[in-house]
Task: structure prediction
Amino acid sequence: MPRQQALHFWRFGGCKAEPVAAVAPQEPAHRAVAEYAMAVEDDQQAALETSLGTHTLADACAEPCDSIERTRNLRALYTEAIMSSQTQPQNHTRSQALQQRAERFFPGGVNSPVRAFRAVGGAPPFVESAQGAWLTDADGNRYIDYFGSWGPMILGHAFPPVVEAIERAARNSASFGASTAAEADLAERIVACYPAIEKMRFVSSGTEATMSAIRLARAATGRKIIVNFEGCYHGHADGLLVKAGSGVATFGIPGSAGVPEEIAGLTLALPYNNLDAVEAAFGAFPGAIGAIILEPVVGNAGCIAPEVGYLAGLRAITAKEGALLIVDEVMTGFRVALGGALELYKLDADLVTLGKIVGGGLPVGVFGGKRQFMDMLAPLGPVYQAGTLSGNPLAMAAGIATVSYLQEHAATVYPQIEATAKAVAEGIAAEAAKAGIPLTMNRVGSMWTWFFTPGPVTDYDQAAKSDTAAFGHFHRAMLERGIWLPPSQFEAAFLGTAHGEAEVTATIAAAREAFKSVQAE
Result:
């Protein structure tokens, strides 16, 4: 089968459940730590204190140690025996008090809308710490994490090499506002994985990256109109909120107030996976479309894979029409493959945007591409772009530690997270089938979505037919059982190397009970 056909689409209704594939074998945990974890299986606080104490500043300053071995030891704390204690009733007193306090200062009590849980109901827990695949809230409740800071935590929370790199960098100052060698160190690693990126600029967010890439594309082509796709999300810049995904889709709004019609009118939002619509747009606006921007795998309307030939078709159309192809890999970069979706689907691009994983969990974005376009940026050319914290030394340190580890261990990391994601995604879809709940599961690598609809789901219109009320009930039921999913039907789920067999087993068991709750509603 050609590689671009290796997407995963499962439709579950009254059909027979498919068997769940086994997770890739894990190395055995350190015996002493595992025995201690068993001894405190009914004492969550003791386990938490032990895990937090495993890595401290003093540790980093002490004699050299094996960071990877320490990571395995941390994971050993989270055995199935400990996880069974999560079935005890949860207390949310402190989180509720913190939410009330936050609402005094922030709209909705949050600094990003989806965190408010308005789409799924219930009260959002306030996170206090995280280790590996686990989050701990302000009340001491623990959860298996399936949103991973919305994608960056591919190596797990508080991954020791990343923590150590940040600590070392911070001792020299958190910011300089001047160039450092670390910027080129990370850039070299990115270019090695992304041949389409000949030059790049670091920024502080994915929104900055896509906004800057579009400005550059308009300058390079002398054209104003940009094509994007319904349900894709490229940040909250004015021209990119037309029929966007992520929180825009979550809250069911067509765009955003405050965006002038003159700006919105320069964006054509087309259906994803429909090449005819793209051809028609270029026919309707001859010589006026400067670029196409897209998520190569949609993650912000839920996970939607490109159909066979779709991405190649977009590349061919842009080449024929003299427009640029901007591939937004903020979510898929370093996740679906070491070289992202460009590697997975053997695609070339004029400009590429990155974020999330490339910063190791710290605020960072990247836009880059062909030298002829990037050299149009000031100080070499007429396109202005700047940022006070661009190339921030802490973000560079975290990014170098993360990307270096992925490069050195790609042969084991990507098969492992593929196998683990397959097991949990298909396992829960099978439980839905047993419960008679219509469900469509889309997955590409270690990102996926369970759509509460019979399916299929190949574009935003089909995703929007999902039963969001049923998803909300499922989300609340899973959270009560210690499983934290993305709080929106229209956001992809993620996992990383810290998720193992115990987490998968516990998640599927929780879903089995959660579906009973959905049935009863």
Notes: Residues 1-9, 11-72, 74-85, 245-254 have pLDDT under 50 and may be disordered. The chain has 20 helices and 15 strands.
